[in-house]
Structures are given as C-alpha cells and as structure tokens.
Amino acid sequence: MADVLVPVEMDQFGLAISTADRQASPGAGAQSFVSAFVENRLGVIGLGIVVAIALFCFGGPLVYHSDQLHANIALTNMAPGPGRPLGTDANGFDILGRLMVGGQSALEIAVAVAFVATSFGALWGALSGFVGGVLDAVMMRVVDVVIAVPAIFLLIYLASVFRPSVGLLIVVLSFLSWLGPARLVRGEALSLRTREFVDAVRAAGGSDSRIVGRHIIPNTLGTISVNATFQVADAIIILATLSFLGFGLPPPAASWGAMLSQGTTYLLDGYWWEVYPAGLAVMVTVVAFNFVGDALRDTLDARLRDR
Amino acid sequence: MIGYALRRLCQAVIVLLGLTVLVFVLEHIIPGNLARAILGQRASAGEIAAFDKANGLDRPVFAQYLTFLSHVLHGNLGYSYRLNQSVDSLVAHELPNDLILVGIATALALVIAVPLGVAQAVRRNRALDHAATGLAFLLYSMPSYWLGLLLIAGLAIGVHAFPPEAPQAASAAGVLSDPRALVLPVVTLALVNVALFSRYMRSAAIDTLAQDYVRVARAKGLPSRVVLARHVLRNSLVPVVTLLGLSIPAVLTTGLVVEYVFNFPGLGLTYFNAAVNSDYPVELGITVIVGVATVLGSLFADLAYAVLDPRVRYG
Fold first, then answer.
1. Within 13 A of B106's CA, how many CA atoms are on the CB side?
2. pTM of the prediction?
3. With a CB-CB cutoff of 8 Å, which residues 233-262 of chain A face chain B?
4. B173: part of which helix (H) or strand (E)?
5. What number is the ipTM of this complex?
6. Nearest Cα to B92, choosing from B20, B16, B171?
7. ∠ CA(B107), CA(B113), CA(B119), 5° rounding?
8. Is the distance from CB of B113 to CB of B198 less than 8 angstroms?
C-alpha cells in the first residue's frame, strides 16, 4: 500500500495528466531525442524564449549600458523616450537595464536551486526507496514534516531572521525544494526495484551497485531532468514573490519582484512602464520554462512507451 | 478500512510532532538570542538573564522543547511582545476572516471548474479545450500578486467597478458587510484555483469517459446528459474531493499574497506584518497553524479517498 495516495497522476503544477492524454501524442519511435523534442512546437518556442531571455539578461548589459547602482533623482519616473526605451523608476534607474540585471540574479539563483534541490532530493529519494523499511519510513516522514509548512511561510520567516543574500537564498530555496524530487524519485525507485530487468540483473549475478548505477538511476534521469526544469520555473516565481513582498535581495540589488512591488505604488499615476515590463518578464520566463518542462516530459514519455 | 485509517492517523501524529520540532528549531536559529530579539539592542545583560529565566530559556534544550510542546498541545501558541497580545487570541480573531476568503473563493472555483473540466473532457482537443487549457496554463504561470494587480488595474482603476482594497473591518461580520470590496480578492484566489481544479476535473473526466461502465450506460440507451451527470460527473468528483484536502498549502500560499495585495485583514497579512516587524512568536505561531492545516488536509484527502473509492481500502 502506498504511503501517500495520489488520486491522479500529477505533473509539477499539480496539473493532472491523464493516461488518455499521453497516448494522444504520436510515439517518437527510433527518432533521436532531439528530433522528437523539436516536434513539440510549444517546447521549441519555450526553449527559444529561455535562450532569448538568457541572452537579454547576460548579454544585454554588454550592449545596453545603464547605471543600476546609483540612484538619480533628476531622472525619477520618466516615461519611455529617446535613450530610455522603457523609462525610469522612482529611483531614476533605467527600467530596461534593470530588467536585465534583475533577470541575472533570478536565473542564476533559480538554476542553482534547481540543480542543488534536484540532486539532493534525487539522492534522498533513491536511498529511501532502495533501502526501504525503517529508514524509508523515517526519511519520508522528514519530507512530510518539511513539506507541511508551505515554502513561502518558511521563506518569509528565514528572510526575516537572516539578511537575504544570493548564497542564502540558494540554500534556503533548495532546502524547501528538494522534497518534490525526493518523493518522485523514491516512487520510481520503489517500482523500479521490482521490475523484471532488475531481477534479470540479479539472476545474472549483477551486484546491487550495478543495478543502481546502470539500471535504476538511468531510468529516473528522465523524471529528474523534467523535474529540474519545473524547479527553475517554481524558483523564479517564489523568488519574485519573495522580493515582491520585500524579503528578497536588499537594494541596490535589482529583482523583478521588487521592481513590480515598487511600480505598484504608481499604478494610480498611470506609470505603466514601472509595472507591466517586470510582471511580464516573470510571467514569460515562467511560462517558457514550463513549456520546456512539459515538452521534455512528453518526449521522454513517448520514448519510454516505445521502448 | 479502520486499520488503514489508524495507520494513516498515526503517521499524521508523527508528522505533527515533527512539525513542532521544526518550529522549535526555527525558534532557536534566531541569531543572538530570543531575549535580545524581543528586548531590543539596548537590553542589559541582567534584563536578558531575567527574561531567559522567566521564559525558561536557561534550561536544557530538550526541557525547553518539552515545555514548548506542552504549550502547543494546550493551545498556547506564544505571546506577541510587539502587539502585546497572545498569538491564540490573534488567531481566533482573524481565522474567521480567512475562512470567509478561502471558503468563498474555493466554492466559486469549484462551481466554475467542475463543469468546465467536464466540458473540456467531452470536447477534448477542440477549441474550447485548447482555450481553457491555455488559460489555465497562463494563470498557473502567473504570480498571484501579478494577477491581483492586473485585476486592480483593470477593474478598480480602469472602470471603477470594484474597490481596490479588501473590506477594512476587524470582525468577520464586518468583512461580510462589504461584499463589493470582497470581490477582487475572492476572484483572484478563485481564478488560481480554477486553473488547478479544472485541470484535475478534465483529466479525471477523460479517464472516466474511457471506462466500460460509461460505454455500457451509453449502449443501453441512456441520454448523454444522464450519462454525464450520473456516471461521469460523480466518479470524476472523487479525485477533486481529495484535491481539496491536498490544495491547502497552495491556497494558503496564494492567500498570503492575496491578503498582502488587497490588504485583507487575515492571518496571511498578519504573518507578513509580523515578519516585517521581526515579531517571531506571531510568525512561529501562525506557522504551527498553517502546518497543522496542511497535515490535516492531506489526512482528510487520504481518508476521503479511501471512503469514496473502495478499491483503495483493499489495495
């Protein structure tokens, strides 16, 4: 009997996936992974947007110079015009330039969190699932406990106790994000260890470490990589939420959430350029990563089915 | 069934105990010490020692945990030195407001999402389905405050249809007496839930539509309206009932943000203000409440599933 009953198979958003849906897409057959992925239009669009955003954030400042460290009260709340395509904010920072700098920290932190959380969670889940018994029960109760408090509450608490920095945010966000992958990988490990090919390896005299290294882990890599992609999207949203609430990186560091939060003060004044670009930036980035994650999952599913 | 329920209950109790350990640890990672955090920078060593003694902070950590546990079990969630009020009375005062917000929003979300999900399943991969799926995807990728801000910009500032701020009343009755001001916060919270619930409903209905008993019902000539209402809808509701229990953390998270955006007088906003003011006892007290709600929600989900779907009991 499963410890946690999941009524319908879920993806990262808690969006349910039905078996019928999965079978609707044609199998990839012998096609390589890349060409199967390329067939997924939304995935390619998502990947394109992700690349464009990364170029915008990291390459943009090389061609578009703006001072994001020194406030300039002579240039506050300027509407878009020549030399400032998206205007300036209440501190006189150029909005276009600030979007780039804010995006840098968002992407860096989110990717780092996805990497740390997914690796640690996968390890935790694999160990728990393989060893089973008392250790499994204890390890999974630990996951249950940390998951019991919604991440945003813990994050706000920790951010109110400690002064947020890039390093601290990565640690804290990872501490709250490894639980999902841990459960997913444990579930896979539990079902994989009873599969025939594992019995076959055993029968042929293969060691436990061979089973784990050559058979189980490669089989969970799909789940792990799909999950990591969704983790990036989740981390960007939660990071933006945190900085929107004022618990993100302290000024003069730029972040999309803080830009949006500051811009809302001027919503009534009609300073649209201080609100919409930052909000759109968060939304488009998250949608793009979700598209990529969805496409990855569909592609991997199709390949697994046709194997 | 009873065996399963008991086992699941034990598990929940263990997790709740773990939760108290987690909150206790959170309380003790405050740099410096609690006395310094509460009494302020200029407190003398003597004052700090007196505070530690009065609050048992000079005792061994394990003894402190047992005291903390006993307090929590007796419903004593701590004392806010900043608000000069016990956390219990704060919670008792504001929880009804949250129940109003979350209750109405969840009910509204179900009323929209259940028929929408079934309609999407029946017309799978047609225009309606694609439009609803796209919208759900967009709503899901949208930070909830961004959605709230868009609604404020459009409906409060743009056309002046609703006030941009939630009812500013202290009591639950006061909150209910200003329904127009409730609209935007409720709609924001509901829309996020519609995105989640309709996806579930859609896939549950798709799976149900493929079942043999639906084919039998059709084959024996039942009108499709009856098939949908009596067989498809009913059976598809099972996962949605459990989803209600499992969605508590997501709803609380969105709730906190929505309360902040609309200045809604609830626990989420109180949590935020406590964090801004470093009012740790309030933060930790609300963390306990939120954790307990989540654990009970998932317990409810599992038990409801076992009751509604007999196959689970014998699994």
1. 19
2. 0.81
3. 233, 237, 240-241, 244-247, 257, 260
4. helix B172-176
5. 0.83
6. B171
7. 145
8. yes
